[in-house]
Amino acid sequence: MGFFSNRALAIGLSLMAVMSSTVTADEPSVSKLPDPLTLEHALYLADEAHPDLLLKDAAILSAEARRKNIEATGGINVDLDFSVFATDDDSDRNAWRRDHARAGVIVSSTFYDFGHTDSLLSGADELRYSRELAYHDTRGQRRLDIMAAYFDVLLADLKFSLYNEAMAVGYVNYDKSKDRRELGQRTDLEVARREAEYQKLRVLRYQSENQQRETRAKLAEVLNRPGQLPANLAIPKLDVMNRNLIDVDELQKQALEKNFHINALRHEVIAAESDLAAARQSDGPKLRGRVEAYGFESEQGSSDEVRAELSLIYNLHKPERDGDVAAELSRLYAARAQLQKAESDLRQETLKTWHHVEELKAQRDETEVLLVLRELQLEKSRALYEMEVKADLGYSMSALTEAQLKSAKTDYQLALAWFKLDLLTANVVLDLNHRTKQPEENLRGEQ
């Protein structure tokens, strides 16, 4: 009882922490994000109290509460009975108890119900374990969400750099075209085209600037730090770029064996099977014991009485049994269907992600060549510019920045695809005992 109360209290405190963090980013209970923010630090925050994790933790608490309720039905019940009796019975039988008051203690328990409670407890344990696995699946998904939000900020910064540079080049070209029009070297149509190009780039520049703030706000929300928009992000070192793909059939096999979500559903099925067995056993025999100890007070004096009873009860008819069995059977069919669909989806998702990694590895080779090409073009344009020969230096600089953006986007997508593949196959490093430390330690660390 104490363990359950402590965990319930911890969840309540965590919810309060989440609610308080939404008021202002300056609350002392919420740690500040470092500047610059690193991907390692962002991932370190993945297991802090967050609504996604709290919902899963609350589901685990619900399963634990269910088990405790089942245990309580087989425990020892103690009742106090205080009664006052008045009767017009004039017979001499038990005359001293004709008008009396009594006080007593009744102790009762079900000693054995021939497997009914055992089936219920087995189902409760399987349900709790299923929700534990769902909790760990959410922890892995939190890491994927953080990585995606972190990379979005970096790409938004690169995109702003590209469009800011392109807008500057567009303005210079537009300004030069106006000067040459004065000299009769450009027509009004050519100047209008240059201005249209500049205005288009100007809009893209402002859109990319807004994206910088939006992606930072999203990252702050994912990290459960609303309002703490990180100013600077460190460029992460990605160690997965040169990983080799194994056969997709082997990956699908690993995913079906180890995937957190799939195994959570499997234990959900086992829980439903146990609950169905319990429903079918609900009208079975029960061995019960009962001890009563009473003290009586009447005009005739006082008396004590103790009575013990051991009974075997068998329900000949229990109307709700058929309904309970039908409900549990329906739940079992639904759980099996969900598992079958999830296994199909997992096979397809693993294949799709495997192909995505394969394509991105090829695209990465392409971007590396493109980067070399754009750097050579920039060097050529810079040399011609210094020799005062006609050269579009601004265009070459923008082309290089665009290639750098494409290269970074490819790398980040590849890193995410690798992590997703690891998550599908449960190949992510997670402390599976983590929940027993959460959220109490997080709260202590933030105080």
Short description:
The chain is built from ten helices and four strands; from the N terminus they run αααββααααββααα. With 447 residues, the chain is an alpha+beta fold.
What is the topology?
Layout: H1 2-21, H2 39-44, H3 51-73, E1 76-85, E2 100-112, H4 116-182, H5 188-222, H6 248-258, H7 260-281, E3 286-298, E4 301-313, H8 320-386, H9 393-424, H10 440-446
Antiparallel strand pairs: 1-2, 2-3, 3-4
Helix pairs in contact: 1-3, 3-4, 4-5, 4-7, 4-9, 6-8, 7-8, 8-9
What would the keywords be for this entry?
alpha+beta, Outer membrane efflux proteins (OEP), 4-stranded antiparallel beta sheet, 10 helices, elongated, disordered C terminus
* Helix proportion: 55-70%
Structural class of the helix and strand makeup?
Answer: alpha+beta
Characterize the overall form: elongated
**Biggest sheet descriptor:** 4 strands, antiparallel
Q: Spans with pLDDT under 50 lasting ≥5 residues?
A: 1-28, 436-447
Order of strands across the biggest sheet? Answer: 1-2-3-4
Rounded mean pLDDT is: 83
